[in-house]
Design goal:
Helix content: 25-40%
Number of strands: 3
Distance between the termini: 38 Å
Largest sheet: 3 strands, parallel
Strand order of the largest sheet: 1-2-3
Order of helices and strands: EHEHHHE
Number of helices: 4
Structural class: alpha/beta
């Protein structure tokens, strides 16, 4: 992107587990997501002079192959749903709109930001 000289947008994926106790027991995952969020901010500062924006989406619990075992568990699923004030788990398509927005010029003044699309998990 730097060599091309056309600017651009980088969209990282964080997790509320990197900021809250919702990731207890997932030390490696949670610390890596906290690192992604810190890296987002540092990269934004370093790359701004090249017209490159860097932001991070911070999703709640999204139904993916990684979370399938948790979401299929009849005990754990209701606990996860209860953590989300919106009352449900997220779907991959719940992330699509924010990802497209951040990748597009519609967000050309946004950089170094963490965009929480987490069903409200971070407001608790």
């Amino acid at each position: 992107m730097i060599d091309a000289g056309n600017g651009g947008s980088i969209v990282n994926a964080g997790s509320p587990t990197g900021l809250t106790m919702s990731g207890a027991g997932w030390s490696a995952y949670s610390s890596s997501k906290a690192s992604v969020m810190g890296l987002t901010r540092v990269m934004a500062a370093d790359l701004a002079k090249y017209g490159i924006r860097v932001n991070s989406i911070v999703p709640g619990s999204i139904t993916t192959p990684l979370t399938k075992v948790l979401h299929d568990d009849p005990v754990i699923r209701p606990q996860l749903e209860a953590m989300h004030p919106i009352g449900r788990l997220g779907l991959p398509e719940d992330m699509a709109g924010i990802a497209v927005f951040l990748a597009s010029d519609e967000s050309k003044f946004a950089t170094g930001s963490l965009f929480f699309v987490d069903g409200g998990i971070s407001v608790r």
